[in-house]
Amino acid sequence: MIHAENLTKRYGERTALDSVSFDVKPGLVTGFLGPNGAGKSTTMRLIVGLDRATSGSVTVNGRRYAEHAAPLREVGVLLDAKAVHRGRSAFDHLLAMGATHGIGRKRVDEVIALTGLESVAKKRVGGFSLGMGQRLGIAAALLGDPATLILDEPVNGLDPEGVVWVRNLARHLAREGRTVFLSSHLMSEMAQTADHIIVLGRGRVIADESVETIMARAKGDAVRVRTPHAAQLTPLLAEQSASVTGTAADLLEVHGIPAARIGEIAAASGVILHELTPLDGSLEDAYMALTQDEVEYRDTAAAAPTPEVVR
Ligand SMILES: Nc1ncnc2c1ncn2[C@@H]1O[C@H](COP(=O)(O)OP(=O)(O)OP(=O)(O)O)[C@@H](O)[C@H]1O
């Protein structure tokens, strides 16, 4: 459990975090989202005592990180996967970390196996690819078998198989009752991994909700209709105040009336339908809507109104 209360961090004139409060609960994967510069890394650094808050407080499992006698056993952290002695092997790196907490070879071997690093465990970390470095960072986070895991961009640099592996691992750790807090810019990945989402924008919490709630809000009223009689159906739907966009010769996107009504109108006129699909909103849509005023750097093309899109 992570509990942040009115957490504020200023760097000179710049307010990186502005009275941020949230709880990250056990048994769930909580995703931490926000545009570049929103304050995610700052928050994670404050949680593990790598930086000092200007005001407010944050505790992990009921205590400030520095107050834990054996922090590795309480909180596993992946913040900067490159912050490793590059001349050491992965095995020696983990063994040296474990030595500070009485963690021995057996557990080191276990986390090496768990993260798929067996074949490179004796190689110098300096020669590791980005993905191998990420796996080593995750191995280090798991070393103390902690109840809380904080992973900053854990899928960064991983190949598709590695991404799925992190997803399954995060979900498995949460099912075991652990608190799993992870940041990512990959929205589709977050939608499949997280149960709950906290979104920061310019140093403030702008959403703290279940993924289900956020997605339900994003759900639009669009319906995809595939028909060989698109030209005949379009005016019939328009008569019912629907807005219709042709996205291909036989494909329409319809807004303003439900799928069932579209089916009835088509049937009444003998129009054959090959597909009638209500379209779900995506976490990406929801995130974009939430953060549209919060982005620190935006190029003007990206800020232009979105044209009709084929989904
Ligand atoms: N050491 C520092 N000195 C001065 N300003 C800083 C420092 N660290 C962070 N900041 C500023 O604080 C704000 C929050 O930065 P932070 O790195 O926490 O954002 P983030 O959400 O992690 O971004 P990203 O997605 O790009 O990693 C930014 O405006 C950043 O420029």
UniProtKB/TrEMBL annotation:
Keywords: ATP-binding, Nucleotide-binding, Transport. SMART domains: AAA. GO terms for molecular function: ATP binding. Residues 2-227 form the ABC transporter domain. SUPFAM superfamilies: P-loop containing nucleoside triphosphate hydrolases. The keyword Transport applies. It comes from the Bacteria. PROSITE patterns: ABC_TRANSPORTER_2 (PS50893). It holds the Pfam family ABC_tran. PANTHER family: ABC TRANSPORTER, ATP-BINDING PROTEIN. This is ABC transporter ATP-binding protein. It comes from Frondihabitans peucedani.
